[in-house]
Fold these 2 entries.
Entry 1:
Amino acid sequence: MPNLSVGVGSLARVVDGQIQERQLEISWWSIDGGYQEGDQIVLYQYVSETSFCQSMGSAVIEQTTIDAEMANASWVRLNSSMPHWVAGDLIDERCQYYWAAYVRLGGQIVACNCLRARPNWMADLKDSGISAAKLRELYLPGTHDAAAYERYAGLSSDQINTKYAITQDEDLFHQLSFGVRYLDMRIIFSPNLPNADVRFYTHHGSYILRPLVNDTALVREFISRTEEIVIFDIHGVDNLDQEPGAHQELQDLLYQEFGQWMAPADMTWEATLNDFWSSGKRLIVTYNDPNQVGAPYFWPAVKHQWGNVNTVQDLESYLTGVMENATQGQLEFAWSAMSELTPNSLDVMTDRLDGLRNAADLVNRNVTNWFRDRWSELATIVSLDFFLGGNIVDLAIAENQRRYP
């Protein structure tokens, strides 16, 4: 695995009337020879794989001389931004727009990498020991409140109700294309909204996002175009007790959307990847309602190891305890390390965290470091807000390759 990563920052704001967002973030570790005066981070235009990591013939987009503070943090935020992707793009693995390098004073590249789509990483490992591994034992990148995605639109996105509701920049298709395999979903029954034909929506708290079928279509498109295995974890089902039959109506809708790929619940969390591949049933749909357990195609929900904390220090302390439990064999089930901050009502009222984008900016590079340096061998599902601000996907792929050669 390269000793340098390229991420997309979560911060977004309006500067002089223009939106500034999606700034590239470069982090590095274990550089041969360590930091030396004159070292630079250089961003190049990506043209093709033949010129990748070759400075000759690659146009320089931006270069930053590493100072002592940057060297200590092993991280820098660039001025350059990652464009938004076209809907449905990213189904093949390639660098996205740029590649970055750690460069010595004389021009020697000592580490380089790019942000790649990872649409087929599971299938690419099919011939290794991973086929016999249990899905719940894999290291899987995840997204917290996966459907709470929305492009930053300027001042309207800075309203309190929005800045504490939106957790992702990428839609579900692009989350999956970049390697996420666990989607934390929240669904609400809202039959009284203006469109009477739509009764189920995705949401985050009181913030209604979009009709559920808009998001199921994105997951269906990804599943149909790859051989990947995906967990669609319906961790919240709200307002369904308002009307008799609403649970069954939702389950019928999900089966209509996903039926040909839905793995039956009797496969259980002990199933191996090969079990899913050989059956062709590659979508695990969970349903977090104990009264609905027993429905043949709906699995028990993934257990969230969620600290409900609002500082980086408290999150680290909580996750340290979770990993200690994992070491002691106390987490013998499907679980996710929920690696995000949770503002309380006072935080929202006072805007202490300046929204979830800023909260993710405080957290993600720390979470990446914790799981790379301390917890890689114990990780199963790791879920983030604004996941491209961390390096969890590459870490997960590398660790799975190590576990299952």
Entry 2:
Amino acid sequence: MMIAKKNKAIALRKKGRSLREISDLLHISKSTAMVWTLEVRLGKIALKRIENLREKGRKKAIITNKKKRLTIKLDIEKKVRKNFIFKTTTSLSRLLCSLLYWCEGEKNECSIAFTNSDPLLISAFLKLFRSGFQAVESKFRVCLHLHQYHNETKQKRYWSKVTQIPIKQFFVYRKSNTGKSIKKDYPGCVSIRYHDYTKALELGFYYKIFAKNYRGLV
């Protein structure tokens, strides 16, 4: 019985059957199928079939893993959204704004400069700054960093919509051609400027005092 199964396994392997297929067809373990067929020399047709099966297996694994990651991602997003419930107060807006500035802002006590290319981050910073520090809209300036391939008018309109700052308060800095490839859909980088000495000091003190308190210093 076992000899017959072994011979059948060898025959199947020569035809290009995978170890998994042999295991399923003969109701034996995959390890047994491997031992029985270890010395089988495969022809070109058999090798081609096995390689095709492996390629299909790899593609299937990629799809399966993507689905698993998507499920995990959606579950975590749902969990975070459920816990992400708080009232935005002026004090909280100031603190969150200062922490963003601590990471991405220019450490200058004379004025405020927040630079980034992420429209969501720029929008969040401005929303927090406006609600927390009672910003005067006419004091905003936007320095738009563009490459040679950018359409200036288009990018001004785009960032004006993101920032809710009029185009007349924009000025443009053109980066020299570095020879690097064009980044598709890259909107350029903006530096939000706000010239107010007292606001710059206040913003700086918020994150400095926060940092000192959280490392146990007075």
